[in-house]
Design goal:
By secondary structure, this protein is α/β, with parallel strands linked by helices. Helix content is 39%, strand content 35%. A four-stranded mixed sheet has the order 1-2-3-4. The protein is globular.
């Protein structure tokens, strides 16, 4: 998985490419821990994210909990397969998906 970060003031956009799974989730978790401090608006761009596993969902949920305290989080450009996972797991009710 490739992680691309773009910061504009207190807005952070994270673009993910590939698969967010057991192998790659720790990389995203580490990136978030080092980048999310002081961010009030977090945007995930999932246009090129092909797959998300339970490990990936855990990292996304953790980011949502942090952002509930310090600002807002939105997920954009969700692939059909990833959206199916969000729907089956009930994450569509927890996350803001555009």
């Amino acid at each position: 998985m490739e992680i691309k970060k773009m910061q504009d003031g207190d807005n952070l956009t994270i673009v993910l490419t590939g698969r967010l799974d057991t192998t790659t989730a720790p990389h995203l978790e580490a990136e978030l821990k080092s980048s999310i401090g002081g961010v009030t608006y977090l945007i995930f761009d999932f246009e090129n994210l092909e797959y998300i596993s339970s490990a990936g969902l855990r990292v996304i949920l953790s980011a949502q909990k942090v952002m509930n305290r310090q600002g807002n989080m939105v997920i954009r450009n969700v692939d059909e397969n990833v959206m199916d996972v969000f729907e089956v797991t009930g994450f569509v009710d927890i996350l803001t998906i555009e």
